[in-house]
Predict the structure of Chromatin associated protein KTI12.
Amino acid sequence: MPLLLLYGKPNSGKSELATQVQDLSSMSTKVVSPDSLSFTPEEQVKRQIELFRSIYSFVQQFLNDETLVIVDCTNHTKSFRYELFCVARERKTRFAVLVSTNEKGPNEKWAEDIYLNLVSRQEQILEKSEWDNPNFIAAEECVEYLMKKSDKIVKRATQIKRQINVSIAVFLNNVCQKIISMQRVTDLETTVQVCEGVYFDCKKIYSVDELQLCKTEFIKFWMDEHRNNQENIDMGTVFVEWLSKIK
């Protein structure tokens, strides 16, 4: 049965996606996470190698013909995603990555310093790397892929669209994170560089919820209006203008 990796920042809704996959799937499932292995957020930073080895051993043990294994953690390093992909390839089973694009930030569980530490280590999905593909942002499409038997179920055009959606979401996540970080250390009215060639004139404090809603609406707008122009620098400029309209 397939191997599914969740990918995203801490406190970004990965466990909710894992639950959705279990509810939608008719397969027997096994979920491994730092919580299930009794790793606290602080230990996920200090004992990262040990955590990865424990997850790897779990996948080795339970990935078989009858079980869907879900790895519910940040999966933030390319090398670890590659190692798990190799297990799936060796077992000749399906493999996919489900991306959580939420941006909730630190909370009671995730102290700010630990949260930012893990976020700083996050290595982006590589669209040309087989160990990061196929990737999805919707649990329904991901389950549909994992439960199909034919290798041809993901049509090229649909797959490209999904990859573009993920790339946009990851790019906007980075922009929003820079804005959030900037707000913690600068005065209200200031201009900051949020990405190469794009500057943001911040005249108010944006909440995480405001940025999340703005990002979601912007992705829909961008895909409808700018399908043939996917350059990140242009997207950043338009997104900053979009943000400036929030009162």
Residues 1 and 65 are 5 Å apart (CA to CA). The radius of gyration is 19 Å.
